[in-house]
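Exercise: predict the fold of this chain.
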Amino acid sequence: MGMPLFLFLLSAVPSGQSFVCTPVAIWDGDGPIWCAEGPRIRLSGIAARETDGSCSPGHPCPKADAKASRDHLVSLVGTPAGTNSTGHVLVKGPAMRCVSKGGAGGNRTAAFCTSPRSGDLSCAMVRDGFAARWNRYWGKHRCN
């Protein structure tokens, strides 16, 4: 028997597990991406500026503006549909396929995700200059 739904919503998707994410909200250029199915994804292998424009200590720091990075991620997964009360950009987009790399703090799941709109999100964010590759978490991931 699988994990009860209420536990799945409150915890990270186990490492190595594939799952579907229909994006509904995005905070910044590396996530979290809120999925209609429950998980909150922190894109694996990359770092983007925080929404206030800063970079977290010990994280790679890309040159791209925080809002431009967030907006680019929104465009990769779907179309913007306003904002919610917490400041997340609401997004409408097709279901993506993700592979968990385990927990990313709190109830977030670190994952590499592929969107039917734009392919591998981590690869696209680095390629397009909106995020920095974070070798510590990139591992053996390959871009097509």
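Check your answer against the key: The chain has four helices and eleven strands.
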